[in-house]
Amino acid sequence: MVPIEKALQTAKNANLDLVEVAPTAKPPVCKVIDLGKYLYQKNKKERQARKSQSKIELKEIRLRPKTNEHHRMFKVRNARRWLEQGIKVQVTIRFRGREITLPEVALEDLREIAKELEDISSVEQAPSMEGRAMHMILVPLKPSKKPSVKYVKPHKEQKKKPVKKTAKKAEVDKTQEKDKKVKKTPQSTKESKK
Fold first, then answer.
1. Residue spans of the chain under pLDDT 70
2. pLDDT digits (tens, 9 = 90+) for 30-39
3. How far apart are alpha carbons 61 and 114 in whole angstroms?
4. Which CATH entry fits the domain spanning 58-140: 3.40.50.2300, 3.30.110.10, 3.40.50.150, 2.60.40.60?
5. 3-state secondary structure of 63
6. Hey, which bits of the chain come out as E strands?
């Protein structure tokens, strides 16, 4: 424990700052450090902590009690793709008009969807009514990282690999080259001189 005057003098001699690190401690804790560097490192640690946090994404599929089988399967296929990518899926069935008098139809639809996706997901929130809609949330069984898709554009100057020729193809190529060559005859040379 050092008196404040001595600590300030030490900081001034070292050309640094006296920074109070823990003001609530008894007695308060101070350090002789460069304040700018300290603040920079503190901000850097906070940015790194924010960067390493995983953001929870939630996608939604919306249906109605009268949604036909084909349309529902299309939506379930999208939900399966999202669950495989590690994204939560909220299934919502919205009621319009007198449809709200038959919530058991929507409940049965939600149960069927959960059963179809049970191999890759589990039900986080059971079907529940909120206003004129019924919701259910599905989470992937194992969290997976999003696949990083990289597209590499081929260069224009890229050379093609030489193709290996078989003996028959080589013979055919030689005969074709012979046919392409025009034999000079005395008539063709006379015509070229004119």
1. 143-194
2. 888 888 888 8
3. 13
4. 3.30.110.10
5. strand
6. 17-22, 29-33, 58-63, 88-94, 121-130, 133-140
